[in-house]
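Quick one: structure for this chain?
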Amino acid sequence: MHEFPEVQQLVRDALTRVPQSKRIRRLVIAIGEASGITPEGIEHHFPAAARGTPAENAVLEFQREKLAARCAHCAAEFKPQGMALACPQCGSTELTITGGQGVRLADIEIGS
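Got it. Here's what it folds into:
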């Protein structure tokens, strides 16, 4: 059930990009690998979130977004591998996660 607010936000974001009287054919959704959100969860909640909107019946497509980080010590930017959350440049574990944690609308296809 925790996906429903995320799906509602995706629909709201999509609707801001749609000219009046147009339908949304396809949504491309980027899901961060550390988001805890699944494509199945989004697919489950999407019909209710999109009901009665131009997004109703849109095709959903998913992209996986890798976890990304920046080292607080040397400022290196990298994609952590597996459970290794240490900077590959200096070995520091003081990191800022910069990507791969959320869910976002990556692209939209608008129809007539």
